[in-house]
Amino acid sequence: MEETYIPNRFGRFLLMALEQSLGTPGFQAVLGRAGLRHLSVYPADNLERKFPVGLIPRLMTALEEMYGVEKGRDLAFQTGRVCFHLGISDFGLLADAVSLVFPLLPSPVRARVGIEIVAEVFNRFTDGNIQVRKEGDHFLWVVERCGICQGRTSSSPCCYLLTGLLHETVHWAIGRDSVHVTEVACAAAGGPHCAMEIDLG
Q1: What domain count does the chain have?
Q2: Which range of residues forms the domain containing residue 14?
Q3: Tell me, what CATH number does 24's domain have?
Q4: I need a surface site. Which of 102, 115, 140, 192 has the fewest CB within 10 A?
Q5: Strand, helix or coil at 158?
Q6: Largest Cα–Cα distance in the chain?
Q7: What is the pTM (predicted TM-score) of this model?
Q8: Any residues with CB less than 8 A from the CB of 51 and at least 6 apart, and which?
Q9: Consecutive 10-residue runs of the chain (201 residues): their mean pLDDT?
């Protein structure tokens, strides 16, 4: 499969979030396990698309190998949550959504605004081809080409980095932690694509 790339800034956020979640010794150990020690020097803080997407599943695999599947996926989820906050402060993913009116909108509307803006940013800067749909009382986030599990094979859905990012996006938008994000389809587990079901609780 031909390598695809995301902006250096996205890769930088991921590595910074991973180091915050693991601590520097754990971060260095995971880089070593993945054969990616050179990433201890973060990529440049710019939007040049030079960070290889294929490095992300290698990092996620190394997490599970180092910490065990359950703990590794918990850490990936936590890393996704941290990625969201780095994006807010340094990239302004949702800055335009913050207004005097926004807090007065119903929770489902605020949630949809949040996840649609993040989807728009990803569609602009990555090749994921993300769609957001409302299905019954929940939202569905569908990724046609998922860079998180690209090339992996798993017996169960494994894109916990993305579930953490979406959880924190909706938590930020609605102001409560009762959000549930479940990966209901995963390309690594034999699905046609990756899909996240978002329930506001």
Answers
A1: 1
A2: 5-199
A3: 3.90.1520.10
A4: 192
A5: coil
A6: 48
A7: 0.91
A8: 5, 6, 7, 8, 10, 11, 12, 43
A9: 86 96 97 97 94 96 96 97 79 57 81 87 87 90 93 95 94 84 96 94 70
